[in-house]
Amino acid sequence: MRQKIKYIHKGEIVTLENIDPTMTVLNYLRYNQALTGTKEGCAEGDCGACTVVLGELVEGKLRYQAVNACIQFLPTLDGKELITVEDLKAKDGTLHPVQQAMVEANGTQCGFCTPGFVMSLFAEMHSNPKVDRLHINDVLAGNLCRCTGYGTIVEAAITVAQSNAKDKFHATEANTIALLAALEKEAGLQLTWQDRTYFAPKTTDELVEILARYPQATLLAGATDVGLWVTKQHRDLATVIYLGQIRELKTINTQQGGLKIGAGVTYSDAWAPLAELYPDFGELIRRIASTQIRNSGTIGGNIANGSPIGDTPPALIALGAQLHLRSKDGRRDIPLENFFIDYGKQDLNPGEFVAAVTLPLPETGSKFATYKISKRFDQDISAVCAAFNLTLKGDVVDDIRICYGGMAATPKRARKTEEAIIGQVWDETTISNAVASMTEDYHPLTDMRASEQYRMLAAQNLLRKFYIETVTPDIATRLVGEGGLAYA
Known about the structure:
By secondary structure, the protein is an alpha+beta fold. The protein has 17 helices and 22 strands. The protein has a 5-stranded mixed beta sheet. The chain has a 5-stranded antiparallel beta sheet with strand order 10-11-16-12-13. The chain has a 4-stranded mixed beta sheet with strand order 6-7-9-8, covered by helices on one side. The radius of gyration is 23 Å and the shape is globular.
C-alpha cells in the first residue's frame, strides 16, 4: 500500500508524509499551512466556522461538498481536492462572486463565522443553487452566527443563486477532473507515525484482511463521531481504518424487493432514494444534521456506533431492515433490531464490520411515519425519535412495528404496545390501550435533553399523532417546508 497522502490544492497535487494521521484538517491548515481563514468555533462539527469544500469524482463528474474541517482527519483528503476560503479570490485580488455578494448584502459583522458561510455558499453555487428561502435555510443550517440574524446572509445566497455566476473553478474543471482521475488509480493508503497506524483500503477484500490483522482497530467513516473522540476526549487512536475509499460500500441499489444501502453511503447520497420510497424517512435525513454533517456522516456509521439516540435505526427497524455483516469468515445477515444488545454493546464479532443494510420496499396499503423530537428543530440530537409501520386489513390492524430511539439503552421496539394494537380495530380505544401499555416497554432516563416523564409523554403522544394522521390525513399536524414537504 502507498505511504504518502496525495490531494489537490490550488490546481496541483500535494504530497504529504510523516504526519499524525489523526491530525484534523483544521489544525493542519491553521498550524502547518498558516491558512487561518478556516476558524475553530466548536471543534465538534456544529458551528460551521471551519467549513471547507472537498471536490471528488462521482461517476466521472466533479462534485463539490461542504464539510467540517474540525473533525475530518487529514488523511481523508487523500484523492480529493481541497478548497479553502483563501483560494476563492482571483490572483488580482478580485473577490469571488460569493464573497462579493456577502459584501454587497452587508452579510458580515464580527466576521468570525463569515468564511464558513462563504464556503457553504460556494459549494451550493457549484451544485444546485435555488432561490427558495427554505432550501437556503437548509443549506446554511450548519453555519451559526451570533451577529447578523442571517437575513443579510440569506440575501447574499439568493443573489448568488439568481446570478448563475461562473468562477475560476468552472474554468479549470477539466484539469481538476484529470488530476482526480489520476489519483483514483493510486493504491490504498497505509501511514505509520510514531505509534499510530492508518489504513485506507480501496476494496472490501483489502478491508477484510486488514481488519483480521487488527480486529481492535477504530473503523472511520464520516468522522462525525470518531472525530470528537480526538477533538473533545483527546483519545489516542492506535490503529484507524478509513472506509471512505471503498466504492463497494458506497453503492445504493434495489434488489430482491429491497433497497440495499452500503455502509459507506452518506446521508446526503441516501436522502433522495429514501425520500422517494418513504417521504418521512427523507425528512428525517434532512433534520438529522447540517449539510456538512450529511455530506460526511454515513448510514452504516449511524448503525455501527450503536447509539441509543441514533436517528436512522428506529426507522430502519420499524421497516424490518436486514443488516449485512462481513468478516474473513464470510457474510452474516441479521435483523437490524437484533444487532443492538445493550448500551455500547452490539452483535459484532472481532474482525467483523457493517457492510450494508437492506430495507424492504413499501407494501401496498402500508403506512409509515417517523418523528424527531429535539430542542432545536435543525441540527440537534433527538430527545425522542419514533417510527411506525402499519398494515391494515379493512379497519383492523394486521401488523404494526413501532420503534423508539432515546427511550432505552438501545433503539428498541415497543412490543407490548404492538401486542395491544395488532388484531384490534384501528380506533381511539385501541390507541388509548396501547398508550397505557407503553409504560411496560420503556423506562426512559432523565438527562440534559429531556426528563423521564417528558420522554414517556412525548412517545405516547407521537403514537396518538400517527393515529390521527392515518385516519384524518387532511388535518394539519406538521410544519410545511421546502417544496411543500410536511416536516415531522
